[in-house]
Amino acid sequence: MPSYDAIIIGTGQSGPALARRLVDAGSKVAIIERKLFGGTCVNTGCTPTKALIASAHAAHLARRAADYGVRIAGAVDVNMKAVKARKDAVVAPSHDGVERSLKTLEGCTVYEGHGRFVAERKVAVNASELAADRIFINVGARAAIPPIPGLDRVPYLTNSSMMDIDFLPAHLIVLGGSYIGLEFAQMYRRFGSEVTVIELAPRLIAREDEDVSQAIADFLKEEDVDVRLGSKVVGVETQGNSIAVSIESAGKNSQIAGTHVLVAVGRRPNTGDLGLDKAGIATDSRGYIQVDDWLRTNVAGVWAMGDCNGRGAFTHTSWNDFEIVAANLLDGGDRRVSDRITAYALYTDPPLGRVGMTEAEVRKTGKPALIATLAMEHVSRARERGETKGFLKILVDRDSQQILGASFLGLAGDEVVHCVLDVMYAKAPYTVIQHAMHIHPTVSEFIPTMLGELKALQ
Ligand SMILES: Cc1cc2nc3c(=O)[nH]c(=O)nc-3n(C[C@H](O)[C@H](O)[C@H](O)COP(=O)(O)OP(=O)(O)OC[C@H]3O[C@@H](n4cnc5c(N)ncnc54)[C@H](O)[C@@H]3O)c2cc1C
Q: Tens digits of per-residue pLDDT, 394-425?
């Protein structure tokens, strides 16, 4: 039985980086990948969707060319084969880079196949059984498929199969009005598809504040995305060349017929076929591997990193998991998951940059807080760019003067929010940003201005 110092299952965002660090530290490492090197982010998540969003943005701006005094002769036409080819060209170097770097890493053996625990410190892959003192799980997650009657009998799409599309769906029905569904919805509307979003909750991305959900719904509707809220999908069936989705809303039943259905109602960890029971590794009721603040599972010598541990669902949280494990094991550190501050973005246009608590979460704490908001139409940079949708919102603890959270829905919101995030990490008062001189004309120059207008959160 081949024996290693460490086995890593999965080549997502944390596994390959950890393999490099372990090898550098003199360990003999085995890494196992069953499908696409680089995992979700590189192949079917962040990288391809943001590349596709860039194409959709170009189409959108081209349609708005006259707003900028630019003439385009004829209608704007999107070549979906070229859009996909561009996306593939953006993805390929990242995917190939992960694969090549692992396969040429001295001290690291790559196994291509499905890894499965057969005992506490033993993993089977293909015909081999591997043993190691330390095992790191980085198996990620996949699209959750809800038990909707008829769904298994129609050719539905997920974020993964969307990556193969090189044609324009005439009418895309998106099940789920949250982060992934909304990015695809706006993107395909801009490519030229008719798009319907069906969401069970009474508002889009219900985890965000109501004003954020409302603003996003408003700009999607302005682009003629049909948003159906409070709508439960009760059945799906093929009708000739269409797929009919039956919905129940406010006690009434209706049907929407489209050409394609994208299922984007959440994610499930890839842990069901990992033999966790053979190793006694505990999961929660949804299959997420339970870990402590240092990402250790209940079994000594086994760690879980990335989406499969339920402690984050982003590339940066998985990467941060790698940093925590590497720092603690190899650098004598004591880094913890609980040290990190919530931070993520939604890549609609305009994007939403989020850090820390939402306004609703701040209210729930009951602590005295201050709030400031600013509509993007007052931001000169946004006016110059002709992109004035959205607003900025920031919340501060009245007593400590530390920033509690921010929701920046607007031009460059995903970038601008980092000036807030870094000050939060420094545990510095908001006045540090207020007193810093920012560059004109940027969106960031308005953060000090906003902080000068904080009012008590009523
Ligand atoms: C459409 C979409 C858009 C997204 N956009 C963003 C974004 O803009 N920003 C952001 O931060 N996050 C985004 N995410 C989330 C992000 O992609 C993930 O959080 C990130 O990839 C972290 O994944 P991971 O490291 O947990 O593992 P993954 O990247 O999921 O990789 C896990 C790997 O393990 C392999 N594997 C699984 N089981 C086994 C097994 N038993 N044996 C061997 N190999 C196995 C898989 O094949 C896969 O390669 C997006 C996700 C989606 C779906």
A: 999 999 999 999 999 999 999 999 999 999 99
Q: Is 314 in the pocket of ligand 1 (CB under 6 A)?
A: yes
- At 223-234, the pLDDT tens digits run 999 999 999 999
Of residues 139, 143, 174, the one with CA closest to residue 266: 143
Our CA angle for 323, 329, 330, nearest 5°, is: 85
Nearest to 447, CA basis, from 368, 423, 427:
423
Residue nearest atom 50 of ligand 1, based on CA coordinates: 45
Task: State whether the beta carbon of 270 lies less than 6 angstroms from ligand 1.
Answer: yes
- β-pairing, 128-137 vs 3-9, is parallel
Q: How many CB atoms within 10 Å of residue 92? A: 12
119: β partners:
122
Angle at 365 between CA 361 and CA 367, to 5 degrees: 120
Q: What would the two tokens of residue 59 be? A: 């189409």
User: 46 CB less than 6 Å from ligand 1?
Assistant: yes
Q: Which atom of ligand 1 has the smallest separation from the CA of 273?
A: 41
Q: Is 114 a residue of the active site?
A: no
For residue 58, give the amino acid letter.
A
- For residue 319, what are the CA distances in angstroms to 16, 232, 312? 10, 35, 10
Largest Cα–Cα separation, the chain: 70
| Contact between residue 47 and residue 90 where contact means Cβ atoms under 8 Å apart | yes
* Residues with pLDDT less than 50, the chain: none
Tell me how far apart the alpha carbons of residues 250 and 406 are, in angstroms, rounded to a whole number. 34
Confidence at residue 268, expressed as pLDDT on a 0 to 100 scale: 98
Q: Which pTM does this prediction carry?
A: 0.97
The pair of structure tokens assigned to 277 is 């029971």
